[in-house]
Amino acid sequence: MEPGIREFFKRLVTSISLLVLWMIINVTIGIKYNLGFYDDAIQWYNIVFYVWLAISFSALMWAYKKIWRKPIDNLNDQHNT
User: Fold this and answer.
1) How many domains is the chain built from?
2) I need a labelling partner for 56 at 20 to 30 A (CA). Which of 2, 7, 21, 81 fits?
3) Which residues contact 18 (CB under 8 A, 6 or more apart)?
4) By the 8 A CB rule, do 35 and 46 touch?
5) For 22-74, how does the pLDDT look when each residue is reduced to its tens digit (9 = 90+)?
6) Which positions ≥6 away from 24 have C-beta within 8 Å?
7) How many CB atoms lie within 10 A of CB 35?
């Protein structure tokens, strides 16, 4: 397998794995521990959960940007010729 294709698939699998891990963690915390829902009024733990959700999503997007920022050399070389 070409090194450029291998690097692309490695980045793709890493990205999908990070997304699935992020979703499992947040769905478990939000649904199983009932932090994503509120009955009569918003409680402090609901606010903490949603702040965590926003911060962890920002961290996930930062990780994606870091993973995909560097161009894959072999793919660009083959595409230009």
Assistant:
1) 1
2) 7
3) 60, 63, 64
4) yes
5) 999 999 999 999 999 998 999 999 999 999 999 999 999 999 999 999 998 87
6) none
7) 20
Torsion from C-alpha of 67, 71, 72, 75, nearest 10 degrees: 140
pLDDT of residue 76: 58
Q: Tell me the two tokens of residue 22.
A: 């992020």
CA distances in angstroms from 44 to 22, 35, 39, 49, 56, listed in the order given: 22, 10, 13, 9, 18
Residue 33 in domain: yes
pLDDT at position 77, please?
60
Q: What was the pLDDT predicted at 1?
A: 80
* Cα distances (Å, whole numbers) of residue 31 to 34, 36, 59, 76: 5, 6, 21, 44
| pTM of the model as a whole | 0.83
Residue 81, in any domain of the structure: no
Which domain range does residue 65 map to?
3-73
